[in-house]
Amino acid sequence: MKLLKDFRPSSPSYQDKMAYTTLRFFSLVVIVLLLIMIGQLFFASREAFNEFGFAFITDDFWNPIDDEFGALPFIFGTVVTSLLALLIAGPVSVSVALYITEYLPKSLSNILGTFVELIAAVPSIIFGLWGLYYLAPFVKDTVTPALKSTLGFLPLFQGPSFGIGILTASIILAIMIIPTITSVAREVFRSVSILHKEAALGLGATKFEMIKIAVLKPSFSGIVGALVLGLGRALGETMAVAMVIGNTPQISKSIFAPASTMASVMANEYAEAESDLHLSALCLVGLLLFVVTFVVNLIARTIVWRQTKGRSKK
Predict the structure, then answer these.
(1) CA–CA dist 211, 217 (Å, integer)
(2) Around 182, how many Cα atoms within 13 Å sit in the side-chain half-sphere?
(3) pTM for this structure?
(4) How many angstroms separate the CA atoms of 144 and 256, rounded?
(5) Which three-class secondary structure state does DSSP give residue 68?
(6) For a tag site, which of 76, 130, 207, 248 has the least CB within 10 Å?
C-alpha cells in the first residue's frame, strides 16, 4: 500500500492540468498540420496560377508535352461521376437506413448495420480491381445494351461503350459512399422522438404513413446532410476511380465515354511529371479539389448540426 501511495500523482489538479495540456497539444498539432498542408499547396501551385490565372479553371486543354494546362475536363469528370454516384447511392442508402431503424429487431439491425459499415473498411484498390475485371465487362455487355435499347434517344446514353468510363466509375463510387450515407441517415432517424411515432400510429396511421409523416418529413435536412457528406466522400476518391474511368481529359455528353477526375489525374501523372509547371498544375488541381471538398463537407456538417440541435431542443 505504501508503494501504491508513492506512485500516485501529487494532486487531482495536477492530473487535470496534464490531461488538459496533452489534449490541447494534440488538438493543436492537427490544426497546424492542416494549415501547413494548405500553405504548401498554395506555395507549390503558385507557378501554375501565375501562368494561367483563373483561366486554368475554364480551359479544357491539357497537354503536358507543350506545358498547356486547363482543369475543366477534370472538374467536369469529378462533378459528373460524384453526382451520378449520389443519384444511385442516395435512395439505396436511405432505404437501407429506414429498414434497419424502423423494421428490423434491434439485434438484427445491429448485425446488418455492421455489415453495411464494413463496406467502408474495404480498401479502394479492391473496389478498383473488382470494377476493372467484373463490373466493367458487366456494364459493357449487359447494362449498356439495356440502357441504349430503352433510353438511347438521349445523348447521355449514346456512343460506344468499352466498359470503362463515367458510368462504371459512378457505380463504383455509389457502392463506396453507401456506408457513409447510411450511417448518418440511421443516426438522423434514431433522433426522431418515439412520441411522434406513437402519436401518428395512435391517430390511425399505417406503418408506411407513420414513416412518411413522423420520420422522413422531420428528418429531411438531416438526410440532405447525409447525402452531402456522401458527395464529399465521392469527390475525393482516387484509386478505384482511376482504375475504371479511362483517364482521358475530355468532356463528353455520353456517360459511356471515358473521362478523368481531379483525383485520378494527380494519381496518374504526378510521378511522371517532368517540368516544374506540370507539377505546379497538378498541385493547383489538388488545391481546387481541397477547396471543393472542404466547402461540401462544411455545408453537410452545418446541416447535420442544425438537425441535431433542433432535435435536442425538443
Answers:
(1) 8
(2) 27
(3) 0.82
(4) 8
(5) strand
(6) 207
